[in-house]
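Appendix B: complex inputs.
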Amino acid sequence: MIPAAFDYAAPKTLDEALRLLRRHRDARLLAGGQSLLSVMKLRAATPKMVVDLGRIRGLAYIKETAGTLLIGAMTTHEQIASSALVWKRARALAEAAEQIGDIQVRNRGTIGGSLAHADPAADYPAAFLALEGVAVVKGPGRQRTIPADGFFTGLFATALKPGEILTEVRIPLKPAIIGSAYRKMKHPASGFAIVGAAAVLRAGSKGQGSQVRLAFTGAAAHAFRAKAVEAALAGQAITEAAVKAAMERATEGVEMLEDLAADAAYRAHLVRVYGARALLAAGAG
Amino acid sequence: MAAMTMFGASIKRREDPRLITGEATFLEDIRLPGMLHAAILRSAHAHARIKAIRTSRAARAQGVVGVFTGRDFADLNPLPCAWQAGGVKNNVNTPRVLEIDRVTFTGAGIAVVVAEDPYAAEDALALIEVDYEPLPVVVDPEEAIRPGAPQLHENAPNNICMDWSCGDREATEQALRAADVVIRQRLINQRLIPTPIEARGAVAQYFPATGEYTVWMTSQCPHIMRLLMSAFVFGIPETKMRVISPQIGGAFGSKIYLYPEYCLVAALAKKVGRPVKWLETRKENYVATTHGRDHITDLEVGARADGTVVALKVKTLANLGGILSTIAPGIPTTLYGRMLSGAYRIPHISCNVVGVYTNTGMVDAYRGAGRPEATYVVERAMDLVAHKTGLDPAEVRRRNFIPPEAFPYDPVGILAGLKYDSGDYDKTLRRALQMAGYEAFRREQAQARQQGRYLGLGLSTYVEICGVAPSAWIGLPGQGWGAGLWESANVRVHLTGKVVVTTGSQSHGQGHETTLAQLVADELGVPVDDVIVQHSDTLGTPFGYGTYGSRSAAVGGVAVHMSLQKIKDKARRLAAHLLEAAVDDVVFEGGRAYVRGAPDRAKTIQELALAASVGYNLPAVMEPFFDETSYYDPPNCTFPFGAHVCIVEVDPDTGRVKILRYIAVDDVGRVINPLIVDGQVQGGIAQGVAQALWEGAVYDRNGQLLTATMMDYAVPKAGFFPRFELDRTVTPSPTNPLGVKGAGETGTIASTAAVVNAVMDALAPLGVTHLDMPLTPRRIWQAIHGRKEAAR
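Resulting structure:
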């Protein structure tokens, strides 16, 4: 609970932050600090330099532009959970934000920090995947985007490269989102997801049924999409029977995590139960 | 008129403004000039010989003042065990200030760094090199007592600390053979981690000129700490040590004990010649502060077909950890085995408890201490009998209750001479069932089952023992407690009429500054705000045994009451002198003394205090000043009881339990401050429910604690609960003149069994009759799933 010594910098601009990252190869970025500070206190992380993004203006916002929901990386969970716009346009994300930790955590923690940290049991990743979000990343001299599908690469690992900073999360709002939901079994100690499921239904093209996206967090080394389920339900009416049948394929090709809260068999079962619940909730509008 | 208005008044806690505004001084807030910081290196192995510890690199690190190992403190004695199991041989092994050549649990202190700041101390820990010779590890008490198991202590063959029994085994076995139904059930009462919000800590200063120590520590009983440290560990006169408990941020029993670190910090202060501070991290709190419970019990209960229980036989393995904490053996014996009659007239009871050493952290009293374990056994037994006989669990309880006319009740000798003082058990049950709408619930439950929903209702009609005392009963040689267990109080009325109460009790959340002042306000007829209550410093308070076992009102409060009677009597005698009347004609009431029938010519307590303080005009034989000390040693313990009802719904798809309602009707005797008692009951219920559903310390086979952070160990949060529905009946305790019993632990004692009974009731249609705690979704789902699989 007593961290090792570290240097600390609080740049005022993104460029300055990027320069600091270039200069200090093992620097860690501090956003809301709700994960990083805990691991530093346990000395599970011992960065020599901590670059605090908290003084950089203009990284916290929620807005809709040209069919896309734009969320600044430093937007807190509480801001997302209390945004009428997010509830209206991307309900699953608001439901995920609302269920993170407790009010203190939600007031400090940020969506960018959480996604970049890539805790396998964090709530946002499922919603980010199911909503087919896009991460906007600034690196030395350039900006690029990473689609959610390729963002999570392993346990606490993402496609972010050294020296890059996640600056914005984009949620495409076309085709129109008909319904979305996030359902979760909370760990009673940590509040993290033992299993969390996000489902998104989008309008299909003319004459076709809806498009289905279903993603899970807490169940495997990183959040994943249940593409077999999505395919099975594409264009189908979201009924209890259809969902239940499709859920049998939810964990195909995915190795379930095992811990004190859930062994693999129980976790796979929870994936089916919470996946169905999220789908049915999304289907209910 | 103030008289008899404060007793029973829900006034707000007087200690809260300073706590809420951050003005209270906790241990962390103490900063002395020149103060150094200690960090402790803890054993990485659960069982190992320590072959060598090399400290030179750490000693050279920046900011480090000194690095020490157990050998540097070899002159200090091992810590004492102050409560052995009564009447049997105890194979005692207690910690040293730092362990020297062997460790028996992960987290035992083996070296210490003293540095200019906590960061330097923590950094230097990584530079200490330890050569361990790992030894075979055993963490399961059932494995530990088997032949060939790793042996933890030379003086404890088969790892047995003590083998203790009560009751009549032969008669109980005979009654079981004659019973219509006999139910056998293995019950695991899992290990819990108390988790007060404030962890432990100590600050010590040594004064070379006088050879005196001042030690601030997170303790529930500073006087006992001074006694044990000075006389038993340091071998110095008690008068050379002053112990202060600053504001304590919760304890739940875990701060009763003398810990190695408290002694270590005092010894370091002398060694380095500067004040030393040590503050526990949360991780240390989880591995090195005491745990609670951890019983494996084989229960046999016999009953007649009509649900009348005829015999209860209990065999319990109590896991005591790798080494003994201060009162570890007393908890699973006196406070557990002796309470196995519960609220019932059970003609034959027999209990055997074997205390076992394993390579796990120390186990000692945790809120409820023995009585939650006993209540769990008895209340599960009642439900198992109901299930087996097909009777309603409320009806089975009624048929077995000790009836009101049977008090004082001797539970067939297992209380070793004590008797339950009072009770009306059916009254609390009736009220609780009425609040729950019992009949309507059973209809709703039946309907819900039709729809595939699983509702359950659980009862716990408990009785507990608290106000723990009579010295002559609990002390050696009877119950093994190595001292007395009375309590003290001094009351002084100063010249200005303001009242100072000092007590040997030690408030760490109980609200003594409020409740004891309420007692004073009524008796002396002064405003509550004219009273201050001081405690927690061995300098300036009378010796007392401290606060635990829900004893501060029933024992400490009575000591205050006695001192107040002495002051009132002296005030009356002084008033008689000033009013030129006969003492027998003077009454003291509502803060005024007057001649009976002439209340207009009265002397107020303030006038009398002034007269007593200045001493200009006193009766010939009267000493100046109102200053009275009392020591109260009750004739019996007190026995709160009540009925708790928990209503749950189990989600069969996930195994998740949702608490729909929680109803508690307690009888804690007369209540000084209902607001405070409600708070105590609510907190207690939360902790008891948490044992049933969420909490559980888990060690792996190597003796590493897997639940060593608050991310893994699930303490309850407010949002987990519905609003508790509380009520009380009042059966005044005949044991003490205040009629009070104790309310600090009832919630924890009662609630665990109520929740488990509720979940088992919900699962009954699925054929599940028992699951061990915590009833996690995974465990429940596996049970349901297993049944379904088997049924296929």
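Chain A has a mean pLDDT of 96.
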